Known about the structure:
By secondary structure, this protein is an alpha+beta fold. The protein is built from 3 helices and 15 strands.
Amino acid sequence: MMGYRRNASPETASPRIDFSFKISAFLLGWVLLTHGAYCRAEVTEAPSLPPICSAQCATPFGEVLGRSPRGVVAYSNCRAECVVPQSHEVDGTYTGLKWQCVEYARRWLLVNHGAVFGDVDIAADIWTKIDRLTKVADQSEIPLAARLNGSPEPPRRGDLLIYAKALYDTGHVAVVLGVDAARNLIRVGEQNFENDPWSGSNAREIAYIERAGRVWVLDPYLIGWKQVLR
């Protein structure tokens, strides 16, 4: 706001900035300057993906592939060779690196059993190194039984299918979402296998046969299944 000396004639009046205006302008400028600097400091770019995670993807990294019957979402990892060093947590519980197969298995178990398994270097290590789940709420343990492919004990919902290291040089883990005994099919949920969108509420269906009291799941590289003992 501009003001003039009272009673001055138009010819002799000289403009002056009111003192209160100067203070207000100074304060406004200071707020805008510091607030603008603060906002700029808070703006950070999303971490960029490694080139191998953004080229020739079956489905772009991070896109939803499907949901299990209880709504556990599977996300695309682009391709098997992609590794993004970003961890994922659910309510403060670490589930793994985005969006590896192990991360999905842990997250499914957390949602359905309130439990997770410990650290492994690669998915194939689950077969030899993991023999129990730990409940998040009270740290109690749930044992896991190892059933070799060809076991008398058939896979059940919630079992973990474990694949040998020869697959992708890391192995693989998938979760049994259901068993169709009438059609001899197992329905599984997983991440980072083929990274294709799911058909319905499962990633794929795998056939099995029964011979002489033993069950064989017809999937290459499958070692067997880790069975949750309830």
